[in-house]
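pasting for ref
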Amino acid sequence: MRTVRESVLDVLRARGITTVFGNPGSTELPMLKRFPDDFQYVLGLQEAVVVGMADGFALASRTTALVNLHTGPGTGNAMGAILNARANRTPMVVTAGQQVRAMLTMEALLSNPQATLLPQPAVKWAYEPPRPADVPAALARAVQVAETPPHGPVFLSLPMDDFDAELTEAEDRAGQAAAARRITHAAAPDAVTVEALADRISRARSAVLVVGDDVDASGAWDAVLALAERTGLPVWAAPVSARVSFPRNHPQFRGELTPAIGPLARQLAEHDLVVVIGAPVFRYYPYIPGSHLPEGTGLVLLTRDAEEAAKAPVGDAVVADLALTARALADRLPAGGGSTPAAHEQVRFPEAADGVLTPLAAMAAIAQGAPENTLWVNESPSNVPQFHEATRIGTPGSYLFSAGGGLGFGAAAAVGAQLGAPGRPVVCVIGDGSIHYAVQTLWTAAAYKVPVTFVVLSNAKYAILHWFAQIEHAQGAPGLDIPGLDITAVAHGYGVRTHRAQGAGELTKLVRDSASQQDGPVLIDVPVTTELPSL
């Protein structure tokens, strides 16, 4: 008779999940003992880092990630990162150990008495199997739920004594049968609906496309690009984009919409129809009131997420596969007439001040040194416009940013992304405040020789909060400056090679040299000035 552990490992193999991100505790050891050679365990020194690495791994590899946490305390430590994973629509199975069943009723030490409630509402599904025999099938179901659009994390609480329990042959077969199931998610749009939308676009005086993260995540890049080029419509990126879903060097690209109600509506003022593809309508922050759309402007949302369609404050919606919908529209629309719209005029910033690089000058130097096929991870919130101005990313699957608004994603996700896409150089551009939310990631990068290039933009403050303080009339708030940080000393202590770049030429060379090697992580500290965004 086989054990639950043996059956679980076969379930994971059947789903192609052989990398485990974790920080083990005593309640997880029974699951991990006699760890098989065909699996890889990636250790993180703190649970939020563990989830962040799994997040980047899943997004870069386009697979489902597996996380192993330590009962209630470990799940609690990871909650911020799990919220980020939900916002990122990351397919992820989060498991946590649980006390032995014989001591759950008395709530012995390390019992998680409300195990399925703790991670909610950050997960799509939370479950504790009622019997040891149900663990393999529950794990198979968890993978299916995580991979059902909209993708997201799920949670399983697994009592530690379940793994040595023996299964009958029928119970074992049931788990393997559940793992072998394949579900295809490709809901085609109704032909009448597509015809009506195509007619609406054709009759519009000035239609515009707005593309969001799910275009890249769902593999609809080529279909949406073809639709845009056939119609000749201008294209905006949805506010606070966590992926690049349209070539930012394309002549039809107009830039990224402002994440505030009134200003965003003004950006769309010349258009009478807005077609949003794969984005919420819209991510807003801060609150600047106004009309959601200009007077007389209509909106249609194309999305795979019925909840996203329901919560939109304005417009109609079509819930269907994005690539199929975009192709169907392109087939029904005439080719756009007239000349190609002029390229969007990008915002320009000063190049230098007092010998210290501006964020744009630093970004330009980084971009010049990075290889063509770089996978970029960004967690420098105050410098997003400068980043996109310098990099002009034009290929799918090349940019990761946290959609959740919480810090701690960047450094961890970069390590996970490099493990998930080992054939691509990964460059992580991150603020000196942001990196300390997941600084333990540096140990994992060094211990596993993960060749990530970390470029830390150091201005000794939470610059994005200085900007919010202006917007919210909250000047004088404490805790916005962080003097005295020495990230190179911290990184060196974790075993990471470090440099401090003083000029653009040196920064370009350091990035080029780091991105071309496979010997482990490199951290480059770059002092920069502060350039606050504008609305």
